[in-house]
Amino acid sequence: MKSLSLDPQGTATKNFSMGEQYHIVGLPDPTVDHEAVNLRTLNRKIEERSLRPGGENQIVSDLQMNNRKVVGLADAVAPTDGVNKKILDAAVNSIRSENEQLILATNENINRKVMFFDGTSLPEANMNFNGQKITNLGQPVEPDDAATKRFVGNILRKMTFYVNLEGAQENLKMNNHAISGLAKPTRPNDAAHKFC
Question: How many other CB atoms sit within 10 Å of the CB of residue 52?
Fold first, then answer.
């Protein structure tokens, strides 16, 4: 018969084998972490941390699925029930169908109230830009195309302006600018230059 080797303080000095045929009996429930555990305590702890098919216990922390599936899930009934793919697909398809019907039903109104960037719709009234600008405008090609300030300015710089004063009923204000290139006067009321 083997004996348990203990030191003077009563602490085992080496491992002791039960020979896989003997038990430790009469072991009380443990009270501290380093005490041996009896089968009753072990089963109770396993049961506390296990899910029973009857649903008597509840999960008290996150459940790590490790990339596994929950299979055989029944159709949801309560708002907090898990949803299977069949119910999810049906809900998504219902929403998609409702949205498509809404789009089709309002498409005509949308086309009348929205101007698309691809040029497929045309404005039906004057547009109020509320003080905003049209920017990045291309060069005009057709006579009724809009033109940028730069384009108009370039045209004006190349133009020579003539003022027809015949029959004028108001004075011509020169704003301190001279009139040059006057022809020699031929009538009594013609303007004359300095060296006539």
Answer: 8
